[in-house]
Amino acid sequence: MTDPTHIRNFSIIAHIDHGKSTLADRVLELTHTISDRDMVEQVLDSMDIERERGITIKSQAVRVMYDAADSKCYQFNLIDTPGHVDFTYEVSRSLAACEGAVLVVDSTQGVEAQTVANALMAMNANLEIIPLINKIDLPAADVERVRTEIEEGLAIPADEAILASAKTGVGVQELLEAIVQRIPAPSGQPEAPLSALIFDSYFDAYRGVVALIRIVDGQIEPGMRIRFMATDITAQVEEVGVRRPANTPVEALGVGEVGYLITGLKDPTDVKVGDTVTLAKGGVAQPLPGYREVKPMVFTGIFPLDGDQYEPLRDALDKMALNDPALVYEPETSHALGFGFRVGFLGLLHMEVVKERLEREFSLDLLATAPSVEYHVYLTNGEQLSIHSPQEMPDASAIERIEEPYLTATVLIPPDYVGAVMELSVARRGSFQTMQYLSTTTVEMKWQIPLAELIMDYFDQLKSRTKGYASLDYEFSEYQPAKLVKLDILLSGKPVDALSFIVHSDKAYQMGNTLAIKLKEIIPRQLFEVPIQAAVGGRVLARTTVKARRKDVLAKCYGGDITRKRKLLEKQKAGKKRMKSIGNVEVPQEAFMAILKVDE
Amino acid sequence: MTASTYKALYLHLPFCVRRCAYCDFDTEAVASDDPQMSVYVEQLILELRQASRNGQLSDISTIYIGGGTPSYLGHKLLISLVYAISTSLQLHPDSEFTVEANPESLAEPMVKDLYALGVNRLSLGVQSFNDQELQILGRSHTAQRAKDAITIAANRFENLSLDLICAIPGQSLASWQESLQRAVSCGPTHISVYPLTVEEGTPLASAVLSGQLVVPDEDIQAEMMLAAADYLTSQGFARYEVASYAQPGCQCQHNIAYWTGQSYLGLGRGAAGMLNLADGSRQRFLGGQLVEQLSAREAIAEDLMLGMRMSAGVAAPADKQALQVLDSLVADGLARLNAGRYQPTESGWLLGNELFSRIWNTLRNNAGNRGCCDIL
Fold it and tell me: Which of A270, A257, A246, A282 lies closest to A196 in space, CA to CA?
């Protein structure tokens, strides 16, 4: 165990793409934690998708040893946090394990929405914040502007901001010294009963659940009986250790230290992020503050394209959930799509990442329906339902009222785009809350907006209407009543459950119309004419028609080369396999997401 | 039982003055005096002699020299090849012997000598009688040159086939009808009509992708195909295959061999060949290499599929599943049942991909059903 005065626990926080992971790489290099040979770009982002998309999904914690200018050796625990708004809770728990944070701001982009959100979280956690202005090697760097934004927008003194380029390594040494000088050492009671915060966990096929913990008081060592306070589960400590970044067992973890804990528990739901670990006997009475259950916000139907893949899909979801307790799912049956699952996610990115991983890591061909939110439906008979999919919506006559989740959305933009954001947000049923200038070049607007509207490509629209300048952050606000109706889509006169969605009644006509036109573009011409109708409660609002195919024939069969011709037919058939047959209509996968692509 | 014998012989000559914009066949543009052409012909003659010695040519009843552009070989090389053929096999005087030619390289001496050596059918790649369309296709001749070539060919050949292409970017229905009329006025006995296919990787495909050229839409293409059927039928041509129209008695026997499951031998670099084996299975070759081995079941599926290219269609198969597929095609209007035979309808031909793929993709994978079907 290390004397707490020689420990520094910190996170690196940033808006997406501001260079957080690259900076972490440089820190590992400079402290010789990883030999050059093992240095894969962005070591901490170990999942393929994380590396490809340049985002961090899971938190990571690495211990590095740093020989400082004062000739002492310091233990740094670098806690890398997820970089996306979907994972805000995980970020908050990671920050709670730290005393300081390095706030990375891209000198070419300036302060963005998640810079603000992350900085606020770090301030709420009482962390010492070291601002670092990154990418100063780029010609477009505007250090002074960024300094102003940090000071005026975030109220963080920026005169001591470190100027760095994580790419070239400039400023990184200075950062390491600043961490020693400016971030406080952890304080805690070594003699007090054990109290440790779980800030992340993952599942290891051989060891069971591995929790990443920060010791607040006391110490933890193998053989101890411990208790997880939120789940009230007791277990024996099998192993504790630190990540360098490979797991390295130690005899004990003491006050201020960060490491991993293995108990042999096999069920990931027993070990929750944010929970407190204490002694089974004589433990603390009060858990550490801040724990809450993570609740999914966005729901979608996920169906195997090939019905035979239902079982493999269930196995894959079971396996993924081991490492992702935020992932919830239950079986769902669709008339059109067969057997699948209704899956709940923290947000849209979480959804995309999970779907992509299911397809890639488990070789599944999946079809996802348009995302939905959790509606609270109050029936005339006094009952209350929580529904996650349009199919579950009861008949309109039985409904007294429906409530939907609202978010507080924070949008950061240059002042020129205030009008554009107003227009978009009002069209999305948003109500304006506040507006504030963070600097002369950045305005912060706050909106109350239904989550259901936000997940309908609000962010894409926001980006395109602000030439990419806008950044967005949001958090759940409250449930509010709304006049919502279920819009049905009928193909060849038959309703297709997987294409129905819930929409505000004022927008039903316009949405129905646009969607009918969009589907006409997406659904290829078939052997027969396919009428497309949008209807609410049996009343048809819009109708389009996919004309019957007229001509589809391959060219000359040259010199009797029939092999080649047949291969083309087989290829064509394989192309069709990517489509879903609904009745006698072949529907491409993108049709189920068409609602997200409705341009306005 | 031994393998069935070859009924048809195809020789492939892959050379052209330049490649057409839409071509993705095994062809290459070479200089007219490029020595590789004579090397190639020499090799082809050797293969021919070999096949003859092996007895593979004893039952041949149709010959087709295709390309590329066989006429581009020039008089001397082409005639030496045809001469070698004439001495490698016994050809009945009525047997069909076709040579393909392009207007720009067909000359009178060539026509006379081909005829003298027993060639009795010429197939001319005319494609269009509109110069602008010919230019878009990247053809090396004008409409006038095509007309002249036909006149030259008609000096000797009664049996003359013209190829025409519709759905050319920029082509209107009216201009297509004009090409059809001008083709008929030249007095051919056979006309092949193909809709243009934009093949990946061709110059045409890049022009279409970049938006420089616009392919007529599906509806216009269908109108063009229908216009060809209407007009050619009114002029005494009968449509005996999806893309082929002929005066009475002038159907292309060589092509019919392809659609009726006859074994054919292919010689030359890009030549396709097919051999039926005694157990009902089938081998397919390309450039002399075995590329596919079809089970008896697959061969039957293939014969059904190919049979539906022909207006004669196929006899009702004994196989239950095959019958089901054909009945489903009838139900969807792609085929009709006529005097015990399943025949393609006009819309079945227009939607050939659907028609052929339903037969092939449904029947090929279902082993176990042994029923033998009589396909013609």
Answer: A257
Q: Given an 8 Å threshold on Cβ–Cβ distance, is A550 in contact with B219? A: yes
Alpha-carbon gap: A575 to the closest alpha carbon of chain B (Å) = 12
Is A539 in CB contact (< 8 Å) with chain B? no
Contact A570 B352 (CB under 8 A): no
Tell me which residue of B156, B168, B47, B166 sits closest to B111, measured CA to CA. Answer: B156
Contact across the interface for B272 and A569, Cβ inside 8 Å: no
Tell me which amino acid residue B183 is: A
Q: In what order do the strands lie in the sheet with A328-334?
A: A328-334, A338-345, A298-304, A366-368
Residue A555 contacts B where some CB pair is shorter than 8 Å: yes
Q: Which amino acid is at B258?
A: Y
pLDDT in tens, A19-64: 888 898 888 888 887 665 555 555 555 555 554 544 444 557 889 9
Interface test with B, best of A529, A546, A561 (most B CBs within 10 A): A561
d(CA B31, CA B127): 23
Angle at B97 between CA B96 and CA B100, to 5 degrees: 125
Q: Given CB atoms, is A574 within the 8 Å cutoff of chain B?
A: no
Confidence (pLDDT) at B238: 97
Cα separation values, B237 from B147, B157, B180, B223, B252, Å = 20, 18, 12, 19, 13
Task: Verify whether the Cβ–Cβ distance B306 to A559 is below 8 Å.
Answer: no
A30 three-state secondary structure = helix
- Mean pLDDT, chain A, integer: 88
Closest CA to A175 of A322, A329, A26, A376: A26
Q: Which of the four pLDDT bands, split at 50, 70 and 90, describes residue A598?
A: low
Tens-place pLDDT, residues A389-427: 998 999 889 999 999 999 999 998 889 999 999 999 999
Which pLDDT belongs to residue A546?
95
Q: Between chains, do B195 and A527 touch, taking CB under 8 Å as contact?
A: no
Mutate to test the interface with A, among B62, B276, B361 (most CBs of A within 10 A): B361
Q: Which element (helix H / strand E) includes A61? A: strand A60-67
- What pLDDT is attached to residue A40? 56
Closest Cα partner for B302 from B360, B223, B373?
A: B360
Dig out the tokens for A436 from the structure: 């504030």
Supply B270's token pair.
């890009």
Judge: B195–A559 Cβ closer than 8 Å, yes or no: no
Mean pLDDT of the region A379-387: 94
**Which pLDDT value is given to residue A35?**
61
Q: What is the pLDDT of residue B231?
A: 98
**Interior/surface letters B187-217, b for 16+ CB within 10 angstroms, e for the rest:** ebbbbbbbbbbbeeebebbebbeeeebebbe
The helix/strand/coil state of B58 is coil
User: Does the distance separating the beta carbons of B357 and A573 come in below 8 Å?
Assistant: yes
